[in-house]
Amino acid sequence: MKDNFNRNIDYLRISIIDRCNLRCIYCMPEEGITNLLPHHEILSYEEILKIVEIGVDLGITKIRITGGEPLLRKGIVSFIERLARIEGIRDIGMTTNGVLLKKFAKDLYNAGLKRVNVSLDSLDENKFRAITRVGLIDDVFEGIDEAKNAGLQPVKVNVVVMKGINDDEIEKFALWSKKVEYQIRFIEFMPVGQNAWKKELFISKDEIKERIENKIGKLIPVQMKKSGPAEYFMLEGAKGFLGFISPMTTHICIRCNRLRLTADGKLRPCLFSDKEVDIKKILRSGTSTEEIREIIIKTIHLKPQGMSEHTKPLRPMSTIGG
Ligand code: SAM
Ligand code: SF4
Fold first, then answer.
1. Which of 63, 224, 273, 303 is deepest in the core (most CB within 10 A)?
2. Which atom of ligand 1 is found nearest the CA of 191?
3. Are 261 and 12 in contact (CB under 8 A)?
4. What angle, rounded to 10 degrees, do the helices at 45-57 and 76-84 form?
5. Domains of the chain, with CATH numbers?
6. CA of 156 to the centre of ligand 1 (A)
7. ∠ CA 219-178-217, rounded to 5°
8. Taking Cα atoms as reference points, which of 90, 108, 14 lies closest to residue 52?
9. 271 lines ligand 1 (CB under 6 A)
10. Is pTM beyond 0.85 here?
11. H-helix segments, the chain
12. Cα-to-centroid distance, 22 and ligand 2 (Å)
């Protein structure tokens, strides 16, 4: 399915929950999201599966499950199992904070999850705690190990870099890539919702790369089969890879192949645009499959050419899913 700018839209990111067990300083206020959705406002698994089935018919082949924290939602393993049974889906991934991954990794893999992205913004116990406000770093390390042992491949580690907060660990993360087989990806901090984004906290991909090259060694470009918006490199002799995702300084929109479904049932054509289509309302009004199909097509045609058309989305990241 092509959008108005000839981009092939084959990737649906689904936020299945707006709740989270962490309170990352860049994503949520300390007290958490106060106006959480009542349960009946959240799409049921059946509703999500119906949207996916219609999406697959339109060319969606790749799904990512996110949140809030997706592993908090009851029945997640059997949901993944049902999702994996839909013919035409070639890839199911999940973005998680990793806190509950140790418990779920094996079952998720057996259910059909293929890959996992784990958010980890510090390698230091105290700093991790300060950034997430409540998290215990060992839970995440154990979750990452378990994901790898379970066969989830590749394991990607996402690091949102913020100046004066965790940028002193850029080199530490780079050195870590020499020892572990993960794809460690540095993500530029984005202004979303009412989050703590400030220009002074921003650090660009180029600056991060420069610091690694100056202090650790040359970044050797690597061509990944499926790289999405990330650029990949490796350090000489390293087991793992270093990735850079730079929504703020690179025109990654040219290759954008995504559509987003929020937990409260809104289809979003772009992370940076607050344009949304209320698919839940349509779904719950007893509309036919054909009409839902038309709505998905309409949303794809709403995709803007680039984020420069917008500034800051109003919704908090935890309710969009990243
Ligand atoms: N709770 C899960 C997690 O943290 O992985 C999934 C939801 S979280 C909203 C998805 C991703 O968005 C995480 O990798 C997180 O680090 C990233 N994220 C959240 N706020 C961000 C921001 N302002 N800029 C860049 N990335 C952000
Ligand atoms: Fe929760 Fe993920 Fe947001 Fe952190 S980034 S508060 S783990 S949703």
1. 63
2. 23
3. yes
4. 20
5. 11-320 (3.20.20.70)
6. 13
7. 30
8. 14
9. no
10. yes
11. 45-57, 76-84, 101-111, 125-132, 137-150, 170-179, 205-215, 279-284, 289-301, 317-320
12. 6
Q: Is 96 in the pocket of ligand 1 (CB under 6 A)?
A: yes
User: For 141-194, how does the pLDDT look when each residue is reduced to its tens digit (9 = 90+)?
Assistant: 999 999 999 999 999 999 999 999 999 999 999 999 999 999 999 999 998 877
Considering every ligand atom shown, identify the ligand nearest to the alpha carbon of residue 116 and give its number: 1
- The CA 28 to ligand 2 mean position distance, Å, reads 7
36 to 39, 45, 316: CA distances (angstroms)? 9, 18, 11
Cα distances from 68 to residues 48, 126, 147, 319, 320, in angstroms, run 16, 23, 19, 6, 8
Of all ligands present, the nearest one to the C-alpha of 94 is 1
Confidence band, pLDDT 50/70/90 cuts, at residue 29 = confident
Distance CA(36)–CA(20), nearest Å, equals 10
- How big is the chain by its Cα radius of gyration, in Å? 19
Tokens, residue 31: 């007290």
Q: By alpha-carbon position, which residue is closest to atom 4 of ligand 2?
A: 24
**Do the beta carbons of residue 68 and residue 20 sit within 8 Å?**
yes
- Look up residue 158 and give its amino acid: N
For 81, the token pair is 């199992």
d(CA 68, ligand 2 centre) in Å: 6
Q: How large is the angle between the packed helices 101-111 and 76-84, nearest 10 degrees?
A: 20
Ligand 1 and 94: CB distance under 6 A: no
Contact residues of ligand 2, CB 6 A cut-off? 20, 22-24, 27-28, 67-69, 97, 119, 317-318
